[in-house]
């Protein structure tokens, strides 16, 4: 370009012919697409950065695609293995693995929650238990972010699952100590 500026150009040329079909000239239109190319590069860098960040999280993220009010596909980030013990491929091979790993006593709660989501309701984070692949019972918190189109139709939702087992164990221990202190205080009063 002018003044040594590098730019991207898109050119389209068509031959112009005379009455005998001979090419007598060429009509060419050239458009400067530098801004579009730069925007594409920025988008690629942004997507790569997002991918690196999500793959580096110990919390795991999943996305559920919705069509006509029904979940049609779920994609899990690689961090699912750190929380659940199951790999991305195992979730892809069994579309019901996510509910089978929920502790049986929490499944009804989770099913009702999914129904609320599919109705398009914003819901608060929920804590529940899962059985990891190795059989260990863990507490998790699942936070949902709904994605709607301009008309408000639910297109998908993202979830972020965090293992909160250590926090829950500390809460249980605290409650146990409080109960012991209350019992000891009651005995002292007596």
Report the mean per-residue pLDDT as an integer: 89
Counting H and I runs of at least 4 residues, what is the number of helices? 6
Q: Which sequence of SSEs, written as H and E, runs from N to C?
A: EEHEEHHHHEEEH
The low-confidence runs, each spanning 5 or more residues with pLDDT under 50, are none
- For the termini, the CA-CA separation is 94 Å
Radius of gyration, in angstroms, nearest whole number: 28 Å
Helix content: 25-40%
Helix and strand composition category: alpha+beta
Content of β-strand: 25-35%
Shape: elongated
**What summary fits the major beta sheet?**
5 strands, antiparallel
In total, how many beta strands? 7
Q: How would you write the strand order of the largest sheet?
A: 4-3-7-6-5
Indicate the topology:
Layout: E1 9-17, E2 23-32, H1 34-56, E3 60-67, E4 70-76, H2 80-84, H3 88-93, H4 97-100, H5 107-118, E5 126-131, E6 137-148, E7 154-163, H6 165-189
Antiparallel strand pairs: 1-2, 3-4, 3-7, 5-6, 6-7
Protein architecture, described:
With 190 residues, this protein is α+β, with helices and mostly antiparallel strands. It contains 6 helices and 7 strands. The protein has helices at residues 34-56, 80-84, 88-93, 97-100, 107-118, 165-189, and strands at residues 9-17, 23-32, 60-67, 70-76, 126-131, 137-148, 154-163. A hairpin with a 5-residue loop joins strand 6 and strand 7 (154-163). The mean pLDDT is 89.
């Amino acid at each position: 370009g002018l003044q040594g500026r590098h730019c991207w150009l898109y050119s389209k040329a068509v031959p112009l012919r005379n009455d005998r079909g001979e090419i007598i000239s060429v009509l060419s239109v050239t458009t400067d697409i530098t801004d579009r190319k730069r925007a594409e590069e920025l988008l690629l860098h942004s997507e790569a950065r997002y991918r690196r960040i999500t793959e580096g999280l110990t919390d795991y993220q999943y996305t559920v695609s919705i069509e006509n009010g029904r979940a049609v596909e779920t994609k899990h980030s690689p961090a699912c293995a750190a929380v659940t013990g199951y790999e991305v491929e195992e979730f892809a091979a069994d579309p019901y693995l996510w509910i089978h790993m929920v502790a049986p006593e929490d499944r009804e709660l989770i099913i009702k929650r999914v129904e609320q989501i599919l109705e398009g309701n914003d819901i608060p984070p929920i804590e529940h238990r899962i059985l990891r692949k190795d059989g260990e019972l863990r507490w998790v918190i699942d936070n949902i972010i709904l994605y709607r189109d301009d008309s408000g139709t639910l297109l998908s939702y993202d979830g972020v699952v965090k293992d909160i087992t250590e926090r829950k164990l500390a809460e249980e221990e605290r409650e146990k100590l409080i109960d012991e202190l209350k019992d000891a205080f009651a005995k002292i009063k007596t």
